Amino acid sequence: MQSINKNNNVQNISRIYALSKRNVILRYKNSFVGFLWGFIKPLLFLMIFTVIFADNSGINNYTLYVTSGLILWFFFSNATSQSVGSIVGSAGLLKSLNIPSFFFPLSEVLGELFNLLLTMIVFLLLMNWAGMVYSPRLLLIVPCALIFAVFIYGLNLLLSSINVFFRDISIIWGTIQPAMFFLTPIAYPESNIREKYRAIIEMNPIYSFIKLGRNIFYSTEVPDWHQWSSCMLIAVVMFLIGQFVFNRLKNQFISAI
Amino acid sequence: MNKEAIIKVEGVSVSFWQNNVGVYSLKDLITKRKSPFKSKTILNNINVEVFRGQSLGIVGRNGSGKSTLLRTIAGIIKPQKGTITVNGTFAPILAIGAGLELELTGYENISMLLALYGTKNSQGNSIEKISEFSELTDEVLAMPVKQYSSGMVARLAFSISLANDSDILIIDEVLAVGDQGFQAKCMEKIYEIKRQGKTILFVSHFPDDVLKICETAILLENGRITHAGDAKEICNNYKKLF
């Protein structure tokens, strides 16, 4: 229908790279400690939880338990909250350049993956000090983070596209995140949730990923195939839902941003 | 003139969803049970043909659909009806401050936008050329764009867009912002681009500017082309609207 600029793949990859780089730069622009915020935040949470829960949690090595969950939670929380407004915030570019709009939520996830990498380096030292043993098994966190990233990308597609038409979404998202955080067993053991509320945990897709990551860092057994495949399934379903909604709405973005 | 059509717009209609009066948030949607959107026609059955090397002026009142037409031609907006055939590449639309990230410095913006625009030689010399053309000093280019004056923003945006070696240049009323010296320089650059045989789509509210650049023009009124032809004649028609 339209022959526009030759959008070859190499060019698109360098465009996504440029946007991701922008996001990483923007994130800590004008801040004093810069990317250190990436682990100051989880560190602060870790300290609070240690003070409140560590002694009566009944968890072996509470520091390691919480840290492993917090790293992935903040990856999720940062990536989604940055991305909710990514389409609206890119009005200038979207209106002047024929650039696929999904680049924006995607580059938010990629920028955050980079931040995760930086954070991870420091936390690997911290967790080692807390008793985690270095072993090749830890590399499993890479596929785990990537599957989680697919899930987050799908969610970002959904949130960022609906937010174009109803700006409430970004407010709602900021509001329900703390609730989601405490409904996910990160600071407390899964067994703390009474049997009749089990459904909350089973239906919480985020917990599947947190649990997978925690199995890699905290427990001594390798996550089984059941766990991997259910995470992959959740990620793919979220991606498809996001993709569907995004594609339905994307042609009307320009007029609404 | 080489009569090869570079842009062919056939029967194009574009409509936007418009917020229904009173429905601005989810709360309104849920409580009032109204359909949140109604469709509003912005462009109605547009037919235009632009030849390689032609400069087409587009005039019309505010809200007549000029920018939407430019964006539709550039592929940014997908039309609901009709087809657009383009046999060339576009430079990014030149509009005020387009795509500049306010928090980033001038230099950071240049390298980001060059990558996004897909300019082939995004090496150092291209950045140098841009900063040279913009006449902005090193010190200014190292500042975040949010601290620029509107004229400086226009200079930067213009310089980056023009670094692109594309067949079609789209200009959406930007020339009014820079100071006189820079305006003259931009005009000179546009003439140069014209002499290279490139195609220019030019939107402006100043008939004099349109006449300087374009031989032909179209007049948009409420999303329809009401007059098309010789630029002089169209500009006269445009002046009669007021």
How is the largest sheet of chain B built, in terms of strand order? 5-6-3-7-8
In oligomeric terms, what are we looking at? Answer: heterodimer
Number of strands of chain A: 0
Strand content of chain B: 25-35%
Uncertain residue segments of chain A: 1-6
Please identify the structural class of chain A as seen in this structure. mainly alpha
Rough outline of chain A? globular
How many individual helices of chain A? 12
Strand content of chain A: under 5%
Gyration radius over CA of chain B:
19 Å
Q: In one word, what is the shape of chain B?
A: globular
N- and C-termini, Cα separation of chain B? 34 Å
SS elements, strand count of chain B: 8
Termini Cα gap of chain A: 25 Å
Mean pLDDT of chain A: 88
**Which ranges of chain B are low-confidence, i.e. pLDDT below 50, for 5 or more consecutive residues?**
none
H/E element order of chain B = EHEEHEHHHHEHEHEEH
Mean pLDDT of chain B: 83
Work out the radius of gyration of chain A.
19 Å
What does this 3D model show about the protein?
The complex is a heterodimer of chains A (257) and B (242). Chain A has 257 residues and is mainly α. Helices cover 72% and strands 0% of the residues of chain A. In chain A, helix 1 (9-27) crosses helix 6 (103-129), helix 2 crosses helix 3 and helix 7 (141-165) packs antiparallel against helix 10 (205-217). Chain B has 242 residues and is of the alpha/beta class. Chain B has a domain at 100-165. Chain B contains nine helices and eight strands. In chain B, helix 8 packs antiparallel against helix 9 (231-240). Chain B is globular, with a radius of gyration of 19 Å. In chain B, 43% of the residues are buried. The model of chain B has no long low-confidence stretch (mean pLDDT 83). Classes of the chains: A mainly alpha (257), B alpha/beta (242). Chain A binds chain B through residues 1-7, 11, 14-15, 17-19, 21-22, 25-26, 29-30, 92-99, 165-169, 172, 251-252, 254-256, and chain B through 16-18, 25-27, 29, 36-37, 42, 71, 74-78, 83-87, 89-90, 92-95, 97-101, 103-104, 108, 111-112, 115-118, 166.
